[in-house]
Specification:
By secondary structure, this protein is α+β, with helices and mostly antiparallel strands. It is 22% helix and 31% strand. It contains one helix and 13 strands. Strands 6, 8, 9 and 10 form a four-stranded antiparallel beta sheet that branches.
Length: 150
């Protein structure tokens, strides 16, 4: 039985629509993959028994600290300070994630992207060697070091 003129027109149109939808779906998938690669979980919450409250910790379980005098891009911990306090950093273009909103700020001394919480750069302390340690809490410098609390 011969096909009507309408069915001949629909077949190429259907293939064209299918091709367009496939391309759009693939583009969406690639966009999702690219976005997934630009985020990285760098912190979690942990109940710190020594301090008696919940604090932020790095993925390795070490307590994260901030210096009271450092906020909104002002850096005090530079040079010899970095021997004891280790900046939590991510690669350029990576958005850090955790249980709270995190951001980054560019360090003026080496250009690395340091993770921040509430505008304060985050560090681990050389005096902490295991999960639950909070030996940096209350250390006075040009400001006071405190465990970051959500």
């Amino acid at each position: 039985m011969p096909q009507s003129r309408t069915s001949h027109r629909r077949a190429p149109l259907n293939r064209t629509i299918f091709a367009i939808v496939s391309i759009l779906a693939a583009a969406g998938l690639f966009t999702s993959l690219a976005t997934a690669q630009t985020t990285k979980r760098v912190a979690k919450e942990a109940n710190n028994q020594a301090l008696g409250h919940t604090v932020l910790v790095a993925n390795n379980g070490l307590t994260l600290y901030s210096l009271s005098a450092e906020k909104h891009g002002t850096f005090i911990c530079k040079g010899s300070c970095l021997k004891d306090w280790h900046p939590l950093v991510v690669a350029k273009g990576v958005k850090p994630t955790g249980p709270v909103p995190l951001s980054t700020v560019k360090r003026p001394d080496n250009g690395l992207r340091q993770v921040t919480f509430e505008g304060r750069p985050l560090y681990t302390f050389d005096g902490d060697s295991k999960k639950g340690d909070a030996n940096g809490e209350g250390i006075k410098d040009v400001g006071t070091w405190h465990a970051a609390s959500p």
